[in-house]
Amino acid sequence: MEEIAGTLTRSDGLERALIVIRADGLATYRRQTMDSASGRWKASGPDCGLYDSVESAEAEARARIWWLAN
Q: Please, are residues 3 and 18 in contact by the beta-carbon 8 Å criterion?
């Protein structure tokens, strides 16, 4: 079973990064965008790397996603 360990949301609310602990115990982050027509979150994207901790996954998200790096 997966667990969302954190959420980082862009300032305009149109995109977010989910920090996820996977069923195998590894951490990852997944990007997710808002459907402007319905106001609901679309399905999250694929795993963006595999990391040994939530902290590592968040650090990578902050380094690789442009709106988090600013």
A: no
**End-to-end Cα distance, the chain:** 33
CA-CA distance, 9 to 64, in Å (whole number)?
14
Length of the chain: 70
- Spatial separation of the C-alpha atoms in residues 3 and 13, rounded to whole Å: 22
**pLDDT tens by residue, 22-60:** 999 999 999 999 998 999 999 999 999 999 999 999 999
Residue 66's H or E segment, with its range, is helix 66-69
The sheet carrying 40-41 orders its strands as 3-9, 15-21, 27-35, 40-41
